[in-house]
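In response to a reviewer's request, we include the raw inputs and outputs for one of the modeled complexes. The two entities were modeled together in a single run.
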Amino acid sequence: MRGIVLIFIVVFAFGFNKKALLGKELFFDKDLSLNKKVSCESCHKAKYAGGDDKRVSVGIKRGYVNSLVLFNSVFNCCYFWNGRRFSLRKAIKDAFFNSYEMGMTKELLLKRVSKYKIKFIKIYGDFKEEYIYDAIYYFFKELISLNSKFDKSLRGEVNLTKSEERGYFLFKKYGCITCHNGINFGGNSFQKLGVFLDKITIPRIEDLATITKRKSDIYVYRVPILRNIAKSAPYFHDGSVKSLKKAIILMGEWNIGIKISDKDANDIEAFLKTLNGEEPKILKEGR
Amino acid sequence: MRGVKFKLFLSIGLGILSVLMIIYFSIFIRNFYAKTNDILYKLNILEKYEREINYYLLYSSLFLYYNNDKISNSLKKSEKVASSLIKDKFFKKHYKASYKNFLEYKRLFNKKRMLIYEFLKYNAPFKNAILYISEDIKYISIPPERVEDIFSLISSLFLSKSFLDDKFVKELSLSKFKFLLNAKNPYNSSLFRNIKIFLEYFPYYKSYLNRVLKVKTLYYLDKSLMDFRKCLDKNVKIFSLLSLFLIGYIALIMGFFIVTLIKLKSSIYKMEQMLIIDSVTGLYNRYKFNLDIKRKRGVVVVFNIDKFKHLNDYYGSEFGDKVLREVGRTLKEFFQRVDRGIEVYRVGADDFAVILDKRDDIEKLVKEAIEYVENKEFKIGNISLSLSLSGGISFDGDLEHADMALKLVKQEMDKKIEIFDGKMNEKFKNILHITKVLKEAIDNEKIVLFYQPIVDSNFRIIKYEVLCRVEIDGKLETIAKYLDILKDMKLYYKVTLIILKKSLFVLKAHPNVNLSINIASEDIKNPTIYSFIVNNFKDSGIAKRVTFEILESAIRDYDDVYAFIKEMEKFGIEFAIDDFGSGYSNFSRVLRLKVKYLKIDGSLIKNLDKDRDSRLVVETIVTFAKKSNIKTIAEFIHSKEVFEVAKEIGVDYFQGFYIGKPSEKFIENVKKM
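The model returned the following structure tokens for the whole complex.
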């Protein structure tokens, strides 16, 4: 009796939510794209913290923005480069019907997912379209990559190197932290790219103005998160910058109005690398 | 019966319905309050979040280092709660006004969220600009004549931020400071560019902060809450009304139950009353008596109205019923005066019973009761009459025994009250036995005729009186002893019929014999006897040899008897009045009957030789008879002395042991003196 209770406690405390596990299956299922060649995972790889190493990702078609990282995405205020969705479930749904990403229709999606019908009924008691997004949402909730070196140093478990320490200081001093703050070092506000530029050269793709149609929202993007930033190169919405150091220097010029010296950039990069978190446990499941 | 069943099922149905209603109502109320509480909680927490958002917003506008997560998380939480409320069908259905305001709140919330992110968009570079301005100013290189301008500019910037008022920077012309850009010092240009950002972003920063804070989300949330409370008050009122209605409904059902119960009880009571109440007198009946006597053993007294049957016969049963009612009422009146607990029961046709506690003066009490009734004059219709009552008492509480005692009272003329004792049982057993034997004898015509001669003064046999003997337990006995029993059993006419038959046979067998036959006045009315006489005695050869003796005291209706005599005399039958002079003889009535003979009662003849009074009476009768041309017969002539006196007085005929004893055979010659 005590054994059974113990097993229950273990399963309950450490076992993954069944919805999340189902979401994981869906996440890796290539059948859920129009041409059955790509899954969600194709562009959101665990290796790259749920992002992609390609400049722009290729769904059923070649897209036009850099793949956003999924690790820790539940902490963000809103989704997509322009933050057009406040709801993660809706963002997941959007991905299925985006003609560049999965390219599905509702009917086709339901048909393709129908092989999971029994599982859905077991877990949800029913099979409905919204449960698909919900399952994936629960999977995303498990895609948490914290406990980085920086987190540990805050808890006093490890010491940062001098360079890393200085990088953190500069990160604050230069005002990077004004936008890159919170649990994800960003992802909680919108910002205009190139505040200090009279003329910006980087292409303008999928900014907030495409949604709001307001002039003031041109080049406005949701602030990207810096957790696992070292893993998720290339950088910026068009993936045009491959090196993190270069991205740091560019941000200094564009949005802070300073020229960050080589040494400072190195230190800041060192600091940013301490933000690489642990791999989410759910991804180790079933391997 | 069907009505009762229907009511029963209706009651059960209503009961179940009310229970279901209460269960449904309580579940509904519980759900309602749980859901209402949930909504109220959510509305309150949204209000809290709203204030939290405003607080964090102001906080972020003031501090350089600020975690935007606080705002975005609060927005997320608000969004989650608000979305769940929007989807809440219960909220939409039961709190319409509140829901409408809530929708407005949600719309404004979305707007506010956009404004907040807009504000944050301007806030960050603006804050960084302040950061850099305050940093750069330490390192810039400027000509001394410009120092004042620069300081005045910087102070204007900070004043405008602190006052959140752009009048301090409105007049500023940035071009005045373009010289900063020309210097080699990178801080100079940084300062210039950050001042530019400041000036550019400050109006947005200021206006968005104002706009965000002016969004009326809180107003509509409050309104929604207020409407919610109003509506809740209304709902509570409805519920209390509903529960009042429910209580009313249950009370109604209870009332219905109670009314039904009362009705049922009253109908049961009525039925019980019908069962125990005598419909004629309104007194308790014999059934109730049997119930009561089982409960309390007491002394049973039975009262009987004397000659009630006659009253009923003369005046009709309706009159009889009235008499019964009056007597019952009077008896009750008497006994309730003695003790309110004493009830009077009607236990038989004209029998009333009471159950008395054992006490010493019961006999006295019964006597008083009888006197109370007898002294009362009953007025029924136009007729007023007084009644006489007899009572039978049984100390062992047995109605049968009291009844037996009563029967014995009836057999004895003078007694009014009899108390039952064990011997009576014997007597009644005997009577029962005799009754049986008599019945058997009559059925088998085991009746023997005896003949006693009646002679004239010269001892010539004129005729014989037919006397009847019946065999009881091997002995021949005179039937006169059992007359009452026979009359009670309605057997008497059968005896008469047997006598008539046998007499007829004798008359036919002995052409020289004349017979005198006893007939009761009841027999005259009996159609069987009447037709027998008419059919068999009309023959003149027989009729002339027959005399019918009728008992004077037994005559009830002189007219009937007279009519009968008249009819029989046509055939040649003669009549005699028997036992004349006993009790209250009425000369005039007897005269009217126009009979041939008077038989002087034996009690007058018995002591004729010794008793002067008897002699005087007999002399009077004889004188009267002679004058009326009626022959006289003296019975009970048991000695020569009596015979001589009777002869001297002038009696015409004689009968008695001195003349001849009754015998089965005819005595041809009576002994000579």
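As requested, we also summarize the result in words. The two ends of chain A are 32 Å apart (CA to CA). Chain A touches chain B through 29 residues (CB under 8 Å).
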